[in-house]
Structures are given as C-alpha cells and as structure tokens.
Write a structure and sequence with these properties.
The complex is a heterodimer. Chain A is mainly α. Chain A contains 13 helices and no strands. In chain A, helix 4 (90-125) packs across helix 8 (173-187), helix 5 runs antiparallel to helix 8 and helix 8 runs antiparallel to helix 11. By secondary structure, chain B is mainly alpha-helical. The longest helix of chain B is centred in the last third of the chain and has 38 residues, at 224-261. Chain B starts with a helix and ends in a 7-residue tail after the last helix. The model of chain B has no long low-confidence stretch (mean pLDDT 86). Classes of the chains: A mainly alpha, B mainly alpha.
C-alpha cells in the first residue's frame, strides 16, 4: 500500500484524486450550465449567430428583392413576418440584419475592451499622476450621454457602419477602464505581485502575466453586457440614419424606414424590434449568468 | 459638515467640464479634410470656404483657437448656426427647458414604478412577486427605447387615439396639453430606467434588511412596519440616492432617443438635426450644454448624498 492510498483510506485525502475538475474556470462553467436564464440567453444567441453566419444561405427570399404587388403583406405561410413598403420579405431582411448587429457589437466591444482594459490596467498599476490623468479623461467621456457621444463621433468621422463601430467602441472605453482599474487596485499589493516585482519582472510582464489573468472575471462579464448595449446603440444610430446605409438591412434602420407606414402595417414596427429585443436579452441573461458563475459572492 | 468634501467635489466637476470643453472643441478640429469645406458642402465656392475659415478662426494656431473659443463660451457666446445664422446659445436656451422637463418627469415615473416593486421584492425574497420583479428588471433593460416609443405610438396614439403621438406644448401655455404630450415620451424613458432601478433598490434594501441594527430592532419587538420604515428604509435611501446619480447619464442618453421618436423639441433632437445639416457649432453647443447639465445634476446628487450620510468623507 503506497502513502496516498494509506492517507485516503484514513480520510486524510479524498478518495477521488484532486484533478482539473476543481479549477476556478471549470467550477464557473458548471455553475453557468445550471443557470437557467443564462442557458436560455445562450440558446437565443446561438440562433442569432447561426443567422449571422449562414444568413445569405438560409433566407427564403432575396432580402433586397422588391415585389410591388405584395406591399404591406401580413404574416403568412409564404412570408412569415409579412412584407414591407417595397414588398420585401421582412423575415429574410431580419436574418441578414443579424450579421450587421453581431459585427458591430463584436468590433465595438473589442475596441472598448482592448483600449479600456489597457488604460485601466495602466491607471491602476502606475503612479498617482498617470492614474489621475487617465481617469479624469475617462470621467470626461463618461459625462456625455452615450448616444449623444456616439452621434457626435459619427458626425466627425462620417456616417456608415465602420464609423458606427468605432464610435460605439469609444463610448464604452471608460466602463472597461474603470472596471480594470478597480480590479487592479484590489490586487496590486497582493504577495504574488510583490514577489514578481522582487524577482525583477518588468511592469509590462507583471501587468500581462500576473495582473490581467486575475482581473479577467469582471471584464468577461462586462464584455457580455456591453455587447447588449452595443447592439442597442447600433440599432439606435441606424434608426437615426447614421449607421447602416441603404439598401443593406439593419434592424434599427428597418424600424426607421417603417415609421411612416405603421398605419398600413404595424408588423413593420414589431418584428425588427423583437429581433433587437431578443438578442439584447440573450446577452443580458448570459452576462448575468456569467457574473453569478464567476463570482458567486455577488449573487443576489 | 465637511466643507473640504464639497470643495473637492466642486473642483472635480469643474475639471470634468473643462475636459468636456476640450473634447467639444476637438469635434471641429478632427473632421477629416478641411472642416470649413465639409461644413459648406462640395459645391461651395473657395471664397465662401475661406470666409468661413476666417470666421471660425480655423486659420489660427490651435491653442489660440481653443482659448478664444473657451473665452467666448464662458461668456455665453457659442457662435452662430451655419444653417440659419442664429446665435447657437439662443437656440440652445429654448431647448433646455423641454429636455429638462422630460428628464425629470421620466425620472419621477421611473422611480414611481421601481420603488414599490424593488421594495416589495426585497421584503419577500423568493416570492412570486420577487420572481416577477427580477424578470421585469432583466427584460425591461433589453427593450430598445425607440422601439418601445414606436409601439406606444402605434397602440396608444394611432389605434386607441388616447394621447398625441408627438409634439410639445409649453407648460405655461396649457398645462393639460403639456401633460398629454409628455406622458408617452416620459413613460418610454422612465420604463427602461425603472427596470434598472428596480434591481438596485431591491439590492440596497436587502443589504440593510440583513444588517445587525435591523435584527436588533426586530429583537426589541418593534412591529415589522416600524422596522422597515424607521430603520431599514431610511438607511437604504442613501444607497438609492447614489443609484439615481449613477442613472442620470444613462437617463439623458435615453432622452436623446425619445426626443427623436416623439419629435420633442429638446437638445437631443437639436443635436441630431445639427449632425444631419453638418452644423458643427450647433452640435458643439448641444453636446456641451447636455454634458454640463449632467455634471451639475450629478454634483447636486453627490452633495445630497453627503448631506444624507455624514459619515461620507472624500478620499
């Protein structure tokens, strides 16, 4: 009988070996999979992602194909969500619109995450002056309401989907900076950071290999929740005519185009809104689930 | 009273406003190409472009331009609108009232919805009403503001004919008509902020309900009503005021969208018109005024928070 068998037999070591099953991330995944609302959100998002990836292959009609004999059609077997003022199939346009929403969401949030987290890490880890300068600049960005700031940035850069992504990304930089800074301040005097400094590791190496992995949880949660806000913001900007330009369908622009025709067909105002609502809800549910899974102490 | 806190908070608000002026000033500077050409459009004559460059001072060194612009802005001179030549400040002045009214009524509607729901769900955690409240807060936050506005217009105005779909009447002119016009836009903006506030109010109440002094109050034999009203609620109010402060910027963001949907003559709609017309002085003015409004409201709420809780110290 070897030593470990002897210890486990006496209840000192557990019978099952302590393996990777007990890591932080595995535990979090287990909690996430048991979170019903998060799983509901994940399924909704899976459908949206499939629509985004396979869009052109699965639309029943050409999303820009007009049929003037069939304008303002109610939902039917042929046209599940009816037709718009040009007789275009609303369902096909909603499928294609998913790609725009996801693209804008992912690019905008990537911009915000990379720049915001980077600034937050530097602010939290460096001296008081650098911290003050960075965080006061973030306060300035934060003082302007998100949509108004995005409108102003698009006004400068010009209309269009690319500039919309950049504008929404800039708007959310302060949120990531604040979260990353707060997380760094919480751990910057921990022993493992001081040990790394004592071993002569440079600041950038410490930030990337020791600090960043330890502040990832709140950032992952914020990424998911920001995707929801980014999709809402894109829809609003496209609704204002600043985002996606004709004839490409975007959910926000479909609502804006349909505004003058709601008396003839209320459906034109219902389905694009539902598409935005369910996608945003999916990200919100998943984000809340991730927060509960990654930090059970915060659970309410 | 710790006046150092008030002073420091005031100072940081001034720094933020100064930062906003730099950002707003940069709007014109970073327009790709010649800003004067962009503003006047591709068919403008070279003389007109040159004239505008001189009028806006774009041919001078950038620091000189900024301080000259700031000096005039402090005196209330934000330049002239490129579209109609009117004073920007005068145009903005007429829009502040409607935007502020909409923001305050939205906030009141939001709190009127969120406060009772958040309170009851915290008092009965795990109950049916708590589950409904939690779902409401999670679903409400996902509703696009402009879509909700559109749906309300379709149902309440177009189908039922109960309230006007858009427009504005000054309150001094006809209070009844003002109320009829403000209900739908304010409910739209208020509903979305209510969904967020519900969650925070529930959380703030749960925190104090589990605190030791509340347990002590119960142990003394006080009625549940006395415990909740005199001990828990008063202390939770401090956190709730902070939450309202955090919500102000988001609320104004919603107001911008709602103003466009309901043709409300506020600053948000003015800013969007300015973008469509490439009227940069007007856009600069609108962004500056909204940011200053948000900063002042936030400052006011921070000071209120300080008055409510004397333990707060500035760190």
């Amino acid at each position: 009988m070897d030593v470990s068998e002897s210890l486990s037999g006496r209840g000192i070591l557990p019978d099952e070996p302590l393996g990777p099953a007990n890591t932080l991330w595995r535990d979090a995944l287990r909690r996430l999979l048991r979170h019903q609302l998060a799983m509901f959100g994940a399924i909704v998002l899976l459908i949206v992602v499939v629509m985004g990836i396979f869009g052109p292959a699965i639309t029943p009609y050409d999303p820009n194909g007009m049929d003037f004999s069939n304008r303002f059609g109610n939902p039917s077997i042929q046209h599940w969500m009816g037709t718009d003022d040009f007789g275009r199939d609303i369902f096909s346009r909603i499928i294609i619109g998913a790609r725009v929403s996801l693209q804008v969401g992912f690019v905008a949030v990537s911009v915000a995450t990379i720049i915001g987290t980077g600034l937050g890490l530097v602010a939290g880890y460096s001296n008081r002056l650098t911290d003050e300068v960075i965080m006061r600049a973030m306060d300035v960005l934060y003082a302007i309401p998100a949509i108004l700031l995005a409108i102003a940035i698009v006004a400068v850069l010009g209309k269009g989907i690319g500039n919309t992504m950049i504008a929404i990304g800039i708007v959310y930089i302060p949120i990531f900076a604040r979260i990353a800074r707060a997380a760094v301040l919480g751990i910057r005097n921990e022993e493992f950071i001081i040990a790394a400094q004592a071993m002569g590791a440079g600041d950038i190496r410490i930030l990337l290999t020791h600090v960043l992995p330890n502040v990832l949880s709140p950032i992952i949660v914020e990424i998911t929740l920001s995707l929801a806000f980014a999709i809402l913001a894109e829809a609003a900007l496209s609704f204002f005519g600043l985002g996606t330009q004709p004839p490409d369908p975007s959910w926000g622009r479909m609502l804006s185009e349909g505004r003058d025709f709601f008396r003839q067909s209320g459906w034109m105002g219902v389905f694009p809104g539902l598409a935005i609502f369910f996608t945003v809800m999916g990200f919100n549910f998943l984000g809340d689930g991730l927060r509960d899974a990654l930090d059970p102490k915060l659970r309410r | 009273m710790n006046y150092q806190y008030v002073l420091q908070r005031l100072l940081s608000a001034i720094v933020v406003v100064l930062g906003v002026t730099i950002l707003v000033f940069i709007i014109v500077q970073v327009v790709p190409g010649d800003p004067a050409r962009v503003m006047l459009g591709p068919y403008a004559s070279d003389e007109a472009v040159l004239g505008l460059r001189e009028r806006l001072g774009l041919d001078r060194p950038i620091l000189e331009q900024y301080f000259s612009w700031l000096g005039r802005a402090v005196r209330g001179d934000l330049g002239q609108s490129l579209l109609n030549g009117q004073e920007v400040a005068a145009q903005l002045w007429g829009r502040i009232g409607p935007s502020f009214e909409l923001a305050m009524v939205s906030l009141a509607i939001g709190l009127a919805i969120a406060f009772p729901i958040g309170l009851i769900s915290a008092l009965k955690p795990g109950s049916a009403i708590d589950v409904v409240a939690t779902l409401f807060s999670q679903i409400g936050v996902s509703v696009p503001t402009f879509w909700m506005g559109i749906l309300l217009v379709i149902v309440v105005s177009l189908n039922l004919g109960l309230l006007p779909p858009s427009g504005y009447t000054p309150i001094a002119e006809d209070p009844g008509d003002w109320l009829a016009h403000i209900i739908l836009p304010a409910f739209t903006a208020g509903f979305v902020s209510a969904s967020i506030q519900t969650r925070f109010i529930r959380s703030a109440m749960l925190d104090v309900l589990n605190a030791n002094y509340v347990q002590t109050a119960r142990a003394k034999g006080l009625t549940e009503r006395a415990v909740v009203v005199n001990h828990a609620l008063r202390n939770a109010l401090i956190n709730i005021v902070t939450i309202i402060g955090l919500q102000i910027t988001a609320l104004f963001s919603g107001i911008v969208v709602v103003e466009v949907v309901f043709s409300w003559p506020g600053l948000g709609r003015l800013a969007l018109n300015a973008v469509e017309e490439r009227d940069y002085p007007l856009l600069q003015g609108a962004v500056l005024v909204v940011a200053v409004m948000v900063t002042i409201v936030n400052l006011f709420i921070d000071l209120l928070y300080f008055l409510l809780d004397p333990r707060i110290e500035y760190v």
